[in-house]
Amino acid sequence: MSGVSLRNVRKSYGNHEVIHGIDLEIDPGDFIVFVGPSGCGKSTLLRMIAGLEGITDGTISIEGNVVNDVPSPQRGISMVFQSYALYPHMTVQQNMAFGLKLRRTPIERIKETVGAAAKSLQLDSYIDRFPKALSGGQRQRVAIGRAIVREPKVFLFDEPLSNLDAALRNQTRIEIARLHRSMDATMIYVTHDQIEALTLATKIAVLKDGVLQQFATPDEIYNRPANVFVAGFMGAPPMNLIDGTIEETADGELHIRLARKELGDVLIPLKNVPEHRKRLGQPVVFGLRPEAISLAAESSDASLSKIECKIDYVEVTGADRITVCDFSEGRMFARLPAGADVSEGDQVTFHFNADNISLFDKDTGLRIESAQNA
Ligand SMILES: Nc1ncnc2c1ncn2[C@@H]1O[C@H](COP(=O)(O)OP(=O)(O)OP(=O)(O)O)[C@@H](O)[C@H]1O
């Protein structure tokens, strides 16, 4: 039985459809993250699962029961919002106990449950404080604690960390991951933050314009993106995507020739497999992660592929040097180590292993699966 199941879920506002038939099977205990550009429908989808927004078509089930017409409080979910939504006139203890009190839970049981949740979130020394006397991170922990004590079937998080500064975000993210591990609960989480998505999720759902682009593990999303949109969206800096053509050499070998004169005559060897051969002469999109690129050294392995380029910009981020090469209709990023000897204006040769590339059909944008990138 699925933890949460969405079948052909659609949502329209007036005549305008914003969610176009989404199917998702979420296993019990999974941590699912919805990501996508602003306006793609992440929050709408989460709010429909929560019952805060009606659905126009399709079915939503929680633990095998269709909940389309079940009011939000009866769905067995707890939601944590970006804005914390704490009651300002109640203490931490009262905020966390409120839902249990409404359910007429015995007072001793409330004390025990709230005490345990406060302890697990390191809130025990703040239990009698009011929200105004707490930091943003502490307030969000109270909101999470309030969700925990209700013992929901499913936790829903709507960008819970976006109001926190970077250090607190990191800390609270680790707490949420720990919570998931210890509770083994089903969690669905909306975020703009790729690090949150890649570190927290057991599976990521990437959305664009109300359409599901890929639903897979973080590793698969990152290393085997299903299409050029996912490839360009996940990762910062994003995957380099450059147009090219599949060609055959005189001795019958296959390669991609990149159609960018600023990068030198780039030939990337391709495995001689039917998936590639049938696209001979056709345009493809070549994808290469910035971290798969290294600066060529005298001793570099001759079997590596090479790209020449002029560095237009160097961004030093502490651990890395991100170099940017602009060329007609695009740019290429390389993530080099902090000690890399590169400056703006340098003409350099980059190396990469042709086994680490992604390849997409230029017309459909879909990944070309082959022995090369398996
Ligand atoms: N109440 C509403 N009436 C009309 N259109 C709406 C309403 N709520 C959302 N929309 C539209 O639905 C689409 C999806 O919105 P949604 O808030 O789910 O996106 P999102 O991916 O969560 O965006 P963000 O990351 O900016 O929060 C958008 O085009 C938005 O304008």
Automatic annotation (TrEMBL):
Molecular function, one GO term: ABC-type transporter activity
Domain of life: Bacteria
GO-annotated cellular components: ATP-binding cassette (ABC) transporter complex, substrate-binding subunit-containing
One of the protein's GO biological processes: carbohydrate transport
Keyword Transport: yes
Pfam families, alphabetized: ABC_tran, OB_MalK
Sequence ranges assigned to domain ABC transporter in this UniProt record: 4-234
Keywords in alphabetical order: ATP-binding, Nucleotide-binding, Transport
Family: Belongs to the ABC transporter superfamily.
NCBIfam families the UniProt entry points to: PRK11650.1
Protein name: Sn-glycerol-3-phosphate ABC transporter ATP-binding protein UgpC
Source species of the chain: Halocynthiibacter halioticoli
Lineage: Bacteria, Pseudomonadati, Pseudomonadota, Alphaproteobacteria, Rhodobacterales
